[in-house]
């Protein structure tokens, strides 16, 4: 089988090239749901908003295409369509524009991004070496002007050319390949005027050296390439960091799971190989890789990664577990409700990418600049040449002025300004404990007028602490004998309050209920109110445990998820600035209400799923709010990416840090 269209120059190693059959037909990567088809392509060579508009416009124009969205950060293009459109035609449309296209693979995409960084770094080093040496020769020519003989000057220029020509041809490949790949398809991009300016400057310099002219411009050529490559390298590094969020999610989905066959045999399979209806064994400590329904076993699951809920949840037959949850105590068997592609993790990954794409729309002004830049500059240079010829200047003189026009208007400032400002600002903020991850983050942060907080791990420490009184010490010490045998967050809080001590023998843990042991012939229990026989007070927070010894009166222990130091001052400062404040949390209603009351925030929502958080941010955006989202969990990643600006604490998950503008 063959793929559609030839791969363009510059396609990274490891990326299955379209046209060379390395990965089979592109159609083999089409996913169909009902009457809609979708395809993920890795697009190579798209660098700016002009490229994005060109590619999306061409693919959207194909018959039946409902949506084509290209993410410049990771090169991934998602295409959705209906009808009989051939997937190979979609890939061919991209390659006909002068870009590379291949089935999307996050692993090879990351490797390709690293290879691109390394290639740019080498090219930059070569240009720097040439610029430093040619500049020494040029300074000698300048300082000796009027005194240096023609032969000596020609030798100096020749040596400069011997250094600059190979260096410029090597370092300039980044721009030459990009320009040629689009020119042969009848299009243009920002690299066309750059390449033309470099080639003409080299040609004029060689001509002047041969004829013995006073001036050559080898130094300007290699210096120009050096500065342009600085900007291109910094841009590539920023794009790879942005891609890290989606790559982290892909890594979670790439793990293996244990599938139980019809005959009862177990087999280790990749998450992508799990089909709906498969029976999956989830051992204690393992992460659930696809959404499943528990069919056998009783345990507890940590869903904080998915929902933000701070406490483990009781799991029994009939309960649905979402991908990303961690089984804590007992083995579970579950029936897969869908494939890895249709799991909650995949939904979050898609929302994350959609949010990043929406954020890139912030720079849409670049579309207008790119669409006007190339024809305007080329027309200006051509008119300059014609004008000087008509004014009586010689062809050589007119050509020199036209080339100067091209070089002066070369977009080195555009290519350098944003990356250099970003680097300088990042360094200063880093010294103050803030890691800036996006070049336009400061502008977006300054525009925000509404702040949305996650609760657990963001406003609070995410670790329950026992609220103790003076008469609790003896009861806490006795309860800790059971608590030391458990890893439950509330048990750990009891142990932290009691300090070092003994562990009761034969402690039994009942998932979802609590701990039990026989101590000196007395049955002691530490757990829920119903299990120990205590009366639960309606409306109270779920952060409660009861301890009972035999038939004695149960003793209640209250816990709180303490606010982070400075959270109250932060809320007050934001209110004084006129910002709206809101809490969106996956935690229970009582826990969220308590924190909202402490901070004086009247607008809050509990039990929020990743999708509902995204929906709320969409509502705020439609209302004209520019939202600053602050969160730390996987369930916050999509909303962090979608928000106008976003922040993540240093202890947040890597996926959330990657999705944020600053950490």
Description:
With 663 residues, this protein is of the alpha+beta class. The chain is elongated, with a radius of gyration of 32 Å. Helix 3 (106-143) packs antiparallel against helix 4 (150-171). It is built from 21 helices and 25 strands. The longest helix has 38 residues, at 106-143. A six-stranded antiparallel β-sheet has the order 7-6-8-14-9-12, with no helix packed on it. Strands 16-21-20-19-18-17 form a six-stranded antiparallel β-sheet. Residues 1-24 and 359-364 have low confidence and may be disordered.
What's a quick, concise take on this entry?
The protein is an alpha+beta fold and 663 residues long.
Shape: elongated
Rg, alpha carbons: 32 Å
Give the oligomeric state. Answer: single chain
Q: What composes the largest sheet?
A: 6 strands, antiparallel
Beta-strand percentage? 15-25%
Helix content: 40-55%
- Strand arrangement within the widest β-sheet reads 7-6-8-14-9-12
Low-confidence stretches: 1-24, 359-364
Helix count from the secondary structure assignment? 21
Strands, total number:
25
Residue-averaged pLDDT: 78
Structural class: alpha+beta
- Give the N-terminus to C-terminus distance in angstroms: 46 Å
Key attributes of the depicted protein:
single chain, six-stranded antiparallel beta sheet, disordered N terminus, elongated, alpha+beta, 663 residues, 21 helices
